Amino acid sequence: MLKRLSISNYALIDQLEIHFEQGLTIITGETGAGKSIILGALALILGERADSSSIRDKERKTVVEASFDIKDYNLKPFFDDNELDYYDGELIARREINPNGRSRAFVNDGVVALTTLRELMTHLVDIHSQHSNMLLSRPAFQLSILDNIAAHDDDLKEYQQLYNRFRATERQLNDLRDNLSRNRSEEDYLRFQLNQLQEIALQPGEDDELEQQQRRLANASSLKEDLWKVSNMLNGEEQSLIDQLREVQATLANAEQNLSDIEGMGQRVNNSLIDLKDIAQSVAIIEETLSDDPAMLQQVEDRLNTIYSLERKHGVRTVNELLALQQDYESKLSNIDCSEERIAQMEQLLSSQRQEAGTLAVKISSARKKAAKQFISTLQPLAQNLGMKNLSFDINFKLAELNFTGCDSVEFLFAFNKNQDLMPVKDTASGGEISRLMLCIKSVIARSMNLPTIIFDEVDTGVSGEIANRIGDMMGDIARHIQVIAITHLPQVAAHGTSHLRVFKTDTATSTTTSVQHLSDDEHVTEIARMLSGNEINQAALDNARVLINSSRC
Questions:
Q1: End-to-end distance of the chain based on CA atoms, in angstroms?
Q2: Residue 541, number of CB atoms within 10 A of its CB
Q3: Buried (b) or exposed (e) across 415-444, using 16+ Cβ within 10 A?
Q4: pTM to 2 decimal places
């Protein structure tokens, strides 16, 4: 439940801290005193968008902080899933708005995304205002009421998982069919291109090897002549380089015996001599194998021209890229060849998943219809007790295509007068009737809602007398199960409060400030008397206030 709300530098509020109790907390005050400002600050904690125009002092940031008692609510999984610090028993949420309009959200002093804060608060607080009455005409809200009463959250979660799986398979199947259709339209083209590539039997890196071979064959004569010249210079019959080095090596060997300064030089020349002999032998062998073969050259060039032509055609530069393209064609054609089988398997899987989801959807629908009967029988007497004595109510179910919520399309139908046809609430109810209907609905589902706090913002507008007293009774009944905070102008409703807060404004020479007073029992009586008689409180008003309070506690 909501334990504390601290507001700093927000609208008419400079600094304010409000403590809340279990049961029914009543908030009263003159029009314009700042009750809606307090709700606006609380809405920031619930994840609503921040507005820098609400900052009181533009030199300071606005801070709104709320603490909740959550020890009786299983919220740890949410904290774990969102990697938030979990303090057993207490939750502290905070919003900060800087003068530049930027805001930050915190949970237990850890920064969180606004969407995370908003989702967390849906488990903690429900604010119901006159604006919320529009929800009653929305099918999704009507369905959520039945689900609350049916209390089948586990079945709903399981169904939604099955439905998501079914939809994912359906998307995969559609993609597979689309791909098959596209591939089939170009199958002849793919086969032609693949056959052309397969026919020439490309090898990885073949283009580099062919280009080297082409250069060797094209220059065979000049290469052979150059190699013969090298071989002759190294190891020819007349004054070859090897012969000269032999003589150098022998001379140095003799000199080394008498001159230590050149020791080892003869061996170094001998090492070079060995290398040159090896080079001379290799050059001679290569020179002998080189041949001027025009037929082979033509064959290599023809092969290269074929490869170059394919590269230009396909917009690539190497044989390896052509081979990658060939592999892609093979893959696409393979997919075409086995797509029919894969589609058949996917269709069978989809049918199985649809049946599994459909079976659970029917079970959920059955629970909703049972809950609908219970809801109708409970709501009608409650609504009649709030002055809608001729109310007729029914819930129309229609079978819908499987969707995220199941297979039900529901519509709440009402008639508020005798001999009136049942119609959707937006076509038949006044604003006051819708407001009282919503209060009755909240009363019905309060026991099944796993929600700590509900806030009613002037939902009793437009009623008076005995109906107002019954609204107070109903709020008091809801407060036996969850924390209820009610903003009201009706003394009959305020009399039911177990705690009472009065909102008021004070003026100084330079500013107006909203404050909140926690009323004692005597002050509670005085405030009810003021609501009954206006600012002039007399003994009769005080006596009437005590009667109202005492009767509300019977």
A1: 26
A2: 20
A3: bbeeeeeeebbeebbeebbbbbbbbbbbbb
A4: 0.65
471-516 tens-digit pLDDT: 888 888 888 888 999 999 999 999 999 999 999 999 888 889 999 9
How sure is the predictor about 447, in pLDDT bands with cuts at 50, 70 and 90?
A: low
Helix axes 187-199, 153-185, angle to 10 degrees: 60
DSSP state of 402: E
H helix runs in 257-317, sequence order: 265-289, 294-314
- As a whole number of angstroms, the longest Cα–Cα distance in the chain is 146
Residues in the chain: 554
Q: How far is the C-alpha of 536 from the C-alpha of 183, rounded, in Å?
A: 87
- Tell me which DSSP letter residue 351 carries: H
State how far the Cα of 372 lies from the Cα of 376, in Å rounded to an integer.
6
Tens digits of residue pLDDT in 342-355: 888 889 999 999 99
Name residue, tokens 């709903």: 156
Distance of CA 127 to the CA centre of its chain: 25
Beta strands at 392-403 and 406-415: parallel, antiparallel or unpaired:
antiparallel
Whether the per-residue pLDDT at 338 is higher than 70: the answer is no
- The DSSP string of 432-478 is HHHHHHHHHHHHHHTTT---SEEEEESTTTT--HHHHHHHHHHHHHH
The H-assigned helical ranges of 2-138 are 35-45, 76-81, 114-121
β 499-507/24-29 pair status: parallel
Cα distance between residue 2 and residue 528, in whole Å:
24
Alpha-carbon separation of residue 501 from 435, 525, 535 (angstroms): 23, 12, 17
